[in-house]
Design a protein that fits this description.
- Pfam families: SlyX.
- There is one protein chain.
- The protein is an all-alpha fold.
- The chain has a domain of about 30 residues.
- The longest helix has about 45 residues.
- It is built from one helix and no strands.
Length: about 60
Amino acid sequence: MQEYEERIAHLTRAVDDLSEAVARQQGEIMMLTRRVQMLMEREAAREAEGGDGIYLGDDQPPHY
């Protein structure tokens, strides 16, 4: 019985550690998502102004 209690304690600790890691990663993902959105908005505004912006996706470079 002691062995099972020790295993449960170790598994509980592992689950807690993983939960903390997931929570931390979720925060990082949210921050990076906001940054990407901001960059996309900035690039869209630059493109709308008619400036020579960065070509993304299927856009052909200007030398074609």
